[in-house]
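Final report, results section. Input specification for complex C-07:
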Amino acid sequence: MGDLEVRPATTEDVSAIVGLLADDPLGVQRETPDDLTPYLTALNRLAADPNQHLVVAVREGHVVGTLQLTIVPGLSRRGATRSIIEGVRVHADERGSGLGTQLIEWAIDASRREHCHLVQLTSDVTRTDARRFYQRLGFTPSHVGFKLEL
Amino acid sequence: MGDLEVRPATTEDVSAIVGLLADDPLGVQRETPDDLTPYLTALNRLAADPNQHLVVAVREGHVVGTLQLTIVPGLSRRGATRSIIEGVRVHADERGSGLGTQLIEWAIDASRREHCHLVQLTSDVTRTDARRFYQRLGFTPSHVGFKLEL
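Structure output:
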């Protein structure tokens, strides 16, 4: 396989990103790949925020993965900045290729560059493989993640 | 008890906030109430970021609670903005008074005003009371929360 590049997402990547978000047992119910308007609006908002890093992994000119890294300053833990990973997706053709690991390692390195003391993420309890995956990368499943839909 | 006000935290509140963060089984090992410098630096960073809302609950002139609400735009769920609650603390004298509920309800209302579609938070698995508390407020413990210290 060709070299992998992880870079900030642009408008031209939105269709591919939404394709990845929708190609997922949970995402298929939640996304509308036929109407990109709300996604383009969201991308503009992300691009204007220096604490937001929406990236794509590109191989041979194709978007094969994505994740969003948010930098969150805070008072707790002696004013520690933390980062939060959301929306990790890997193209079906790339599963098992190590791309997921490369994406998370990119996020960890970027968090270090931003002087974060902590990286955190949540994973739906139905994603049973994810637990082993994140533990192998050094993450501790120390928390319960709660969500409330408005 | 007197009326409660929830308002943005200022420099003058930092000592009281750090006192709340440290008066906690987990926080006591992590905070340094004798050295406020890193907390004041973090407050300045939060105050400059329109997506950050660090608030205090004040009753009769005293800070009795705090939380941090972060607004996170994103592409998934049709470009839905979510909010993340961190650092919820209630003064020991106020436990059982309903203040925790009022703080979370403030965060939910603020999230609606910011057009969020989802409110999320994580709670350490050792905080056994928290699970019932958040479920009573309508949250679903649907996720595993992973953390990696850098």
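The CA atoms of residues 30 and 114 of chain A lie 32 Å apart. The two ends of chain A are 43 Å apart (CA to CA). This concludes the modelling results for the funded period.
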